[in-house]
Amino acid sequence: MVATSSTIATNSSPSPGITLTLESTGIFLGILVSASVLGGVAVTVISKMNRISSSITQIEKTLEEQARNAEKIREIDRTLALHIQEYVNRKDVVQMVLGQLNEKIDHKFKRVLFYTRDIQRFLQRDTDFKIREYEETTQPDE
Known about the structure:
The protein is an all-alpha fold. The chain has one helix at residues 22-126.
């Protein structure tokens, strides 16, 4: 009988590649999981920094707008103060002119009243002219 031996696979020389064992596969998977977790944390931190940056930009724009609005308010306040002062000045002038007119009217009325009384006295003395009685006030209203 002939003895035959069969050889399935033999490797007489070590291969130049990497030999994967269960331990090295576990280490490799652990490194991959750690790297993915670190990547996720980095993405989270970067997204939060971007949100903070956009919030800061919005705040800056809002502050610039408020500064412009505050300047407009100051300008409107100055204009209003000028208009109020102009109104007060005009009101004082109008009151002064009205007071002068009132005094002038009172003076003219008193002169007419005195002339009328003089004419009445003359007519009563030299003629039989009858004067109707009426109520008059010569005192200024207060």
